[in-house]
Amino acid sequence: MHSVRRRWAAALLLVPLLTGCFAARDGSPYDAGAGAGGGRLRVAMAFPPAERFSPYGADATLLSRLGVTEGLTRLDGNGGAVPALAESWTRESGGGWVFTLREARFQDGTEVTPAAVAGALTHATHADPAPAALTGVRLTAEAVGERRVRVTTGTADSALPLRLSSPSLAVLSPKAYRTKAGADKSGADTSGTDTSGTAQARSGAANGKAAVDPAGTATGPFTLARTSGATRATLHRFADYWGGLAHASGLDVRFIVDGTARTNALRSGEVDIAEAVPVSQAATLDQPTVREVPTTRTTALFLNTRSGPFADPAVRAAAREAVDASALAEDVYEGHADTGRGLFGPALTWAGGERPRPTGRPAAKRAGNPALTLATYDNRPELPEVAQVLQQQLRKAGFGVKLEVREYSRLEGDALAGKFDAVVAARNTMLDTGDPVSYLADDFTCDGGYNLARVCDKAVDRAVAEAGARADDAARHRAALAAQTAVLRTDGVVPLVHQRIIHGVGASVRGVILDPYERTLVGTGTRR
User: Fold this and answer.
1) First to last CA, the chain
2) What is the pLDDT of residues 377-410, one digit of tens each?
3) Which interval of the chain is the signal sequence (predicted)?
4) Which superfamily does 297-500 belong to?
5) Is the pLDDT of residue 9 over 50?
6) 435 closest CA partner among 355, 517, 352
């Protein structure tokens, strides 16, 4: 259960779809506009740190969104891997890749060396639970030259450069890895005085596991200087950032879970940026302060294909035909979402054009449909309302529907164990690895680790395996779309909407990163 919790935390680089966006010095697209920099920015975040800022769990994305951490690569607007800490890479025979590092420094002043990078990746492989990007992957890393690192997987992995863009595989300095006793995972002495001011950020220190502290040990344009539990964080500008000096001198971050309170903080001038404004609050903001971007997050109805009423394909087909997803996009999301036609949304340019509609078997005529339990979580405010609308639509088709709403952490284990007949959930398909094939394998194959629909279908497994064998990006994308069709034919998942994310941005603020992957929010160009 714990090995997959990070997949749902949270929640941007799509140049072709973003009007008025330009590249920041770190290569990320940001909201256009002129303005002087230098001041501190006040930022309201939707999700507080859940694991003491561990880079291996839900907080990995939080660290990347605030410009603290980076990996060897990042994703571009077409979903491809492009340079970050690695300036180039080549593939070797036998499953290895060699990455050439750019000249960069960690926030503790030490140099980013091949040994440090190899050590950081090795620590990630020993994390418990393992980062989502390493699910089913046996990875090793070693320094092989003055500026080169060889990364090898147990079996050939065409998606490795994409995988290394994951926020959970951020590169930290050797100082970041400590145990309670002051020894690193391999037993080497790393004791010293903690001057970071974030002793509470050391995930796992209480039980002697390898402690990881990203404060002052990452490579991004902002360094985590101080935290106040799960309520506030203070970040300062990193003067030696390889991508150039950030415009803002620092970030004063508040974690405000309630979407209305977060929006009110922006409207009253208490914060400069409020991320993830609920659709119900978007109309309360002045139009110039609203920034909206399509994302790779799809909300879907997952039907339990192994037990209960939806083990019958005809019943699944009846449920699929009963759902009117367009009503959700127009009413629940108030036009701030696109009607779901597949697993991959319009934010992915390679998945554009005509989208596949669910193509499972026709629903058989039935005298009545069975009773079922439909579950969802309230961490995302629209989901309970989506579930209520689906409840009405399914009841109209003759289903008896009992609705259950929980906080996500209390729902996940039961959902994965198949204790519900159906689950409404929002999934960022590109968040974990950036690789569509890895997402399909994890969510819809017999051995998948996050298979909410509990799909186990030979045609799906075969199509996903064929897609995984493709090395060329274009061929891999085409094969992923073919595998998507195989998944939809099972009727185990009914796509509902492709979400857009709405940020509230103060009138004087420029350079907020509009990222469809939900991995970044502030960067070197963010300022007021």
Assistant:
1) 42
2) 998 889 999 999 999 999 999 999 999 999 988 9
3) 1-23
4) Dipeptide-binding Protein; Domain 3 (3.10.105.10)
5) no
6) 517
Has residue 366 got a pLDDT over 80? no
* pLDDT tier at 50, thresholds 50, 70, 90: confident
Question: Would you say residue 359 has pLDDT above 60?
Answer: no
> For residues 416 and 452, is the Cβ–Cβ distance under 8 A?
yes
| Residue pLDDT, tens place only, 155-198 | 888 899 999 999 999 999 999 997 543 444 433 333 332 333 33
Could you please report the per-residue DSSP string of 32-88?
-------SEEEEEESS--SSTT-TTSTHHHHHHHTT----SEEE-TTS-EEESSEEE
Sign of CA dihedral 82, 86, 88, 93: negative
Q: Name the nearest CA neighbour of 127 among 43, 229, 221, 58.
A: 58
Distance CA 274, CA 284 (A): 13
35 pLDDT exceeds 50?
Answer: no
Tokens of 181: 């006793």
284 phi, psi to nearest 5 deg: -80, -10
Q: In degrees, to the nearest 5, what angle opens at C-alpha 485 toward C-alphas 482 and 487? A: 115
Q: What is the pLDDT of residue 353?
A: 57
Q: What's 334's DSSP letter? A: T
Report yes or no: 343 and 487 within 8 Å, Cβ to Cβ: yes
Look at residue 17 in the predicted model and tell me its pLDDT: 31
Q: Which helix (H) or strand (E) holds 148?
A: strand 148-153
Single-letter code of the amino acid located at 99: F
Half-sphere exposure (Cβ direction) of 193: Cα atoms closer than 13 Å: 1
In a 13 Å sphere around the CA of 323, the CA atoms on its Cβ side amount to 30
> What is the model's pLDDT at position 15?
30
**Structural domain spans, the chain:** 297-500
Neighbours of 523 (CB within 10 A): 28
Residues 158/470, Cβ–Cβ less than 8 Å: yes
Query: If we measure between CA atoms, which residue out of 3, 409, 53, 450 comes closest to residue 212?
Result: 53
Distance between CA atoms of 232 and 297, rounded to whole angstroms?
A: 27
The DSSP code for 107 is T
- Angle, vertex CA 422, rays to CA 359 and CA 415, nearest 5: 125
Does the pLDDT of residue 374 top 50, yes or no? yes
Rounded Cα distance between 525 and 528, Å, is 10
Q: Which two tokens stand for residue 528?
A: 């007021």
Query: Are residues 160 and 97 in contact, defined by beta-carbon separation less than 8 angstroms?
Result: yes
Q: In whole angstroms, what is the distance from residue 469 CA to residue 110 CA?
A: 39
